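INTERNAL AUDIT FORM
Audit reference: QA-55
Scope: verify that the stored structure record matches its stored sequence.
Auditor: D.O.
Record contents follow.
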Amino acid sequence: MDYIDLLNNLDSNKLKNINLIQVEDKYFLDLAVKSLKKDFIGEEFLDFNFERLDFEKLTSDKYESCVETLPLMSDRRLVIIDNCDLNRDSLKKYEEILDVMQKSFDDFNTMTYLFLIYESEKLFKGKFVKSIDKNGDIYNFSRLDKRQFYRFIKKYFLSNKIKLDDKSTSLIADRLRYLDKDANRTLYDIENELSKLANNIKSNTPSYDEIEESIIDTFEEKIFGLLDYMSTKDATKALNAFHTMKNEDVAMIYYMIIRQIRNMICVKDCVQKRINPQTSQNYCGLKSFEYGKLERFISKYKMSDLLYLHHLCFESEKYIKTSKRTFYEVIERIILAFCVGV
């Protein structure tokens, strides 16, 4: 079950007394806790009927006291235990407290609603977790998938009275890199970026070009925008993006261009050899999100084109030392070769 299931159980008064939430992104956890405190317990006697503990500091006596304490002027008491360490390698270390907790599940206080918070992508289903599954509910607040993330973006802009089309939504999702797990971006990071973007948009129904102009304002966004324009052979947009980066670290831009070419060569090689995507991703050292993007880009290039671009980058280093050209001008030459010279 997920975040929506928890809200539905809350609204229909079907919450169980024992609950485990596996969390990959704290955004939905914070929303859930807010709803539990406000809508399930109520704010009038919250100080008496809500307790939040840290698993690492939890003792058997403290746990038993919390779950057995009766609520004040209510029939519900909420207990949240954060940072539960349920990793397989940690079970021996916390065996004593876990045994106490597990035994309490068999005859649990019906006025206490316990939520154990476990932050990890994987959940080891040992006897403790199986006991929770038997006596209560397990929720998984996972990261959003592509469809859910697109819907999240559209919903955010609609709340600001801005309507996005699918193409613009795809552009924003691509730039925000939430779907690229290597970026380690949370929905809090995404909301912050969407807020800045929404403030830059003047129209209620912005065009794709308006979105594109508004979104590129940080170095990270600029460099990934530049690489995308280069890889799709859009010389005008690539040069415009590069010209907005005059005050940035040109050595870093140069490095990122070389990295892009190397990755495209690797992906092209894997595709030509018909290696399956999972093996290819591991071989190239790329996550599925970035690999998928590059797989689309390489259709515009022959392997010989990419090898030439790779050679050109290293020849350009020599060119800088033997000519009066600046590093900035040399990178501009590489961009043109990338877009129109291959």
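Auditor finding: record pair retrieved intact. The longest strand covers residues 112-119.
Action required: none
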